Amino acid sequence: MEKRQLRSRDWFGKNDRWGTAHRAWLRAEGFSSQVFEGKPVIGIANSWSELNNCNAHLRQLAEAVKRGVWAAGGFPLEFPTISLGEMLMKPTTMLYRNLMAMDVEECIRAYPLDGVVLLCGCDKTTPAQLMGAASADVPALMVPGGPMLGGMWRGRAIGSGTDFRRYWDEVRAGRLGEEEFCEIEGCVSRSAGHCTVMGTASTMAAMAEALGMTLPGAADIPAVDARRKALAEESGARIVKIVEQNLRPSRVMTRQAFENAIRVLMAIGGSTNAIVHLVAMAGRLGIELPLARFDEISRATPVIADIKPSGKFLMEDLFNAGGIAAVIKELVPLLHAEALTVTGKALGENVRRAACYNREVIRPLEKPLQPEGGTAVLKGNLAPSGAVIKQSAASPELLKHRGRAVVFENNQDLLARFDDPNLAVDESSILVLKNAGPKGAPGMPEWGHLPIPTKLLKAGVKDVVRLSDARISGTSFGTLIVHVAPEAAVGGPLAIVREGDEIELDVAARRLELIVPESEIKKRLAAWRPPKPHYTRGYGRMFLDHILQAELGCDFDFLSGPSRPEDAEPLRRFPNPSV
């Protein structure tokens, strides 16, 4: 593999005024002169925060990474990044994913780092760090934080998000008391770490491993398991070797690697959010991932991981059954097994010794949980640029359905009316939420899991078709059509859906149609006027001005595309003054 001079030598390798000053400033932290004698400088990008329970243990992992770096002959330096805490950050962490990606990219590029270890956990922290690392294209390796310990309530396994929603619907239907529900609060989140089901955080950790950007087994070791610290230490040692080999993200995250990740996504019934993130990550490297390719892979990939919300087990069960590595090994006949990874070996070689220890949790390809992949891509006159549905977590009887629209113009309208006893809704209705997309919400929040009206819950209705330009949590379940594009706020056909319009869904045919004459659709679109923007200044204004649509990954238009090699050499492009 190609070797090159360490980037950090541009800062520390000279005995002139600036080299001396750079070394002196770091020696103020108590480092000896020996650390500057040709050791690769390894940045540890830490998204730790007490506002983010998923990442609350990353300080400990950072110390383990440092041990590995020192032992391998490197010089570790930890630095903070933005931390996106899914539960507490409003209106949505997706509003800030690109900001975090910019933070990571510019820190890697601007500082004297030869390589970087990315410490992530919560949903958007993983794609944001990978997007930033891809754009900086300095040798990098990821260490996910891992899932929290599985929840248990009154002898029943409960998964964060998924079962919270189920039990809350039971409260609303009058079948579970609020006091009982409050007991769950102390049972569902038993430790630091991300969600215990195949939510977005678990999915994105699996994507990082399938892409080849982590060591094998990194996706699913529980957050507080001692083996996660051991993996972090091994990762610290490995990044030093990656720097020696100049193994950059652009050499690992290739088209073949992204197709491997899509294949794994479909096999685990993973979060629909991964589609948006993978498209954005690939875009940073100049790789186009059209939605049609996701659907092609989905049709040829069965679901083999029986994990909530598509199945019945938790992430801890998946880990004990062999983990994502065992899933990848099962999928090897369908993968680009020769794809290079950060181990310096091919993906297939990484999982050669992986094994499945529980065939209930990880099914064989010939006896899958479901015959097709977790997510299907829909198109039609209601979604010309596409929409997605997690078919593995939907109600089979609703996958082909025709019903009348019950329309909510925005989230405020939804909250004001969905529980109105006079709302004209029944089990055949299709609930439609507009203006919840990238510009409309703003930030495309996880509002696509529209609540079922209480009067339907009390009548025993468990699911209805719901449709929006929003996203959903990876922990969500039900017949939820999301990412409708173009979104309502930019004049997509969703904007002109009216109360009582008929909508037809046919997942097998991949169709989503508004049953309204074409002439009427054109008339309504001609009369449509854009809503008032949510922001007039600051980051919010920049977001609205530059955000791309869902099928393009919701990146900023000026961030998509590969960087130039010289962008990673700031001191060569912009040298310090000589005096």
Description of the structure:
Strand 13 and strand 14 form a beta hairpin. The protein has 21 helices and 14 strands. The model has no long low-confidence stretch (mean pLDDT 96). It has an eight-stranded mixed β-sheet with strand order 7-8-12-11-10-9-13-14. It folds into three domains: 7-18 and 25-149 and 191-351, 3-Layer(aba) Sandwich (Rossmann fold); 150-190, no CATH class; 376-527, Glucose Oxidase, domain 1 (3-Layer(bba) Sandwich). With 579 residues, it is an alpha/beta fold. 35% of the residues lie in helices and 13% in strands. The chain is globular.
List keywords for this structure.
Rossmann fold, 4-stranded parallel β-sheet, Glucose Oxidase, domain 1, 21 helices, 3 domains, 35% helix, 579 residues, alpha/beta
